[in-house]
Amino acid sequence: MGKTTRKVQITGGSTFIVSLPPEWVKRNGITKGSEISISDDGNDLVISSSNPDLPEVSKKIIIPPNYTGKPLQRLLTSSYISGFDTLSIVSKEKMGSELRDDIKRFSKVVMGIEIIEETSKSVVLQNVLNVKTFPLSKAIRRMSLNVGTMIEDTIKAIEDYDEELFQNVIERDDEVDRYQWYIYREVKNHCQYEDSNVFMLVLSRILERMADHTVNICIAMKDRKAVNGRMEMIDNLKFSLDVYNHAVESFYSKNFKVLDGIINQKSEINERKFKLLKILSYDVVLSSIAEEISRIGLYGTDIAELAMDLILSDKLEFSVQ
């Protein structure tokens, strides 16, 4: 929850009191006689629960023994994003090796999940990672670094016709997904504590899409040895990477002065795309690469716009210097 307003009342002739938001009271388990902490921060008073730990969330899903593969992965991923401390996966009958292996594979794919108990009909997962031990700011930085290096290595793979490096970039997309699922989960469960968390969520979605476009370039290029317009392709991708790097830097530094310049590069990104399409003679596969490259650059300008939204989100007055 964001900021709220309460009227000050007086009791006993000299004691000033305000009521606590009922949502906050319920969320933190405050009852009559509970103690809260009050910190004096100059013009601000910071109120916090003396026991800030939320009650543990234990969930249970019951599945048939043949519920394996992608349906199971989707179910477990949604359960992960919804948030739990422990998740019991229970089969109506004895679990086969395929089902058990799928659950173990999932626990290795997502962040901070460990198997703590197994029986013939069940597997219990425990979450050991949250914003206290791994802050969202650190997660989003690592995610953005991964995307940046994926783009850099794609450029190098195109320059060197390196099929192994193309494949390596493709496989690293899973790491980006891991960060996005973690950010989704933690924003959902802790968004009331930081107003900026919603911006982290949007940024994670942009980064995930940029990783997907990078992978699409690698897939299209992996089996192509000779490509007309290869140098122009590399030049465009370097330009899009430059837009991305400046946009990410501005998001972290909240540097308002550079944002308009980044956002205004949309027109050049599109112009470069159409020039590249002409060079590629509108080849179906290669034309898709030109589109993927431009999308990476345009997502970079989206990050700059998001940075502007973040900077202005808590300002009642703002002066453009």
Automatic annotation (TrEMBL):
Q: Which GO terms describe its biological process?
A: intracellular phosphate ion homeostasis; negative regulation of phosphate metabolic process
Q: Which residues form the SpoVT-AbrB domain?
A: 10-55
Q: A Pfam family in this protein?
A: MazE_antitoxin
Q: Which domain of life is it from?
A: Archaea
Provide any one GO MF term from the record. DNA binding
What InterPro entries does the entry give? PhoU (IPR028366), PhoU-like_sf (IPR038078), PhoU_dom (IPR026022), SpoVT-AbrB_dom (IPR007159)
Task: Please report the name of this protein according to its UniProt entry.
Answer: SpoVT-AbrB domain-containing protein
**What is the scientific name of the source organism?**
Thermoplasma volcanium (strain ATCC 51530 / DSM 4299 / JCM 9571 / NBRC 15438 / GSS1)
Taxonomic path:
Archaea, Methanobacteriati, Thermoplasmatota, Thermoplasmata, Thermoplasmatales
